[in-house]
Design brief:
Layout (H helix, E strand, L loop, with lengths): L9 H7 L6 H9 L3 E3 L2 E2 L11 E6 L2 E7 L9 H5 L2 E3 L1 H20 L9 H13 L1
Antiparallel strand pairs: 1-2, 1-3, 3-4, 4-5
Helix pairs in contact: 1-2
Length: about 130
């Protein structure tokens, strides 16, 4: 069987391409609406074809990938990267969103240490007044 004739389920392909750590997590993501094909929700049992364009949401990241290879087995990270090609627009958008999250995190105040005894007393007094 040639590589282009091989068909594989979507959840298995997502696992082999290392988008999700386990096949069950990949299946849950597809069932939960985190993976779309041409803007439409799909099922985990859908067969993957070369040149399919998937939109995959994983946490804060959103990938738009085009299938370039099909594999039933999970290989190394280098092999997994040959199974898909991320669009340039997707790469730029992910980079911009990561930069925005980083800047927002830097603007948020954070304490360098836990409050000492005196500061805890002030916090308690303030909360009692409320």
């Amino acid at each position: 069987m040639k590589a282009n004739e091989l068909t594989v389920r979507l959840d298995k392909w997502l696992w082999a391409a290392r988008f999700y750590k386990t096949r069950s997590l990949a299946g849950e993501a597809v069932s939960g609406g985190k993976v779309h094909l041409a803007g439409h929700r799909i099922k985990p049992s859908r067969k993957v074809k070369i040149d399919d364009c998937f939109e995959i949401q994983r946490g804060y990241e959103r990938f738009e990938v085009i299938v370039t290879g099909i594999s039933e087995r999970r290989g190394s990270a280098n092999q997994a990267q040959t199974l898909y090609r991320e669009t340039d627009a997707s790469v730029d958008k992910r980079r911009n969103e990561a930069e925005k999250r980083k800047l927002a995190l830097m603007q948020r105040p954070h304490s360098s240490a836990r409050p000492d005894k005196k500061q805890r007393r002030k916090i308690r007094q303030f909360n009692e007044k409320l």
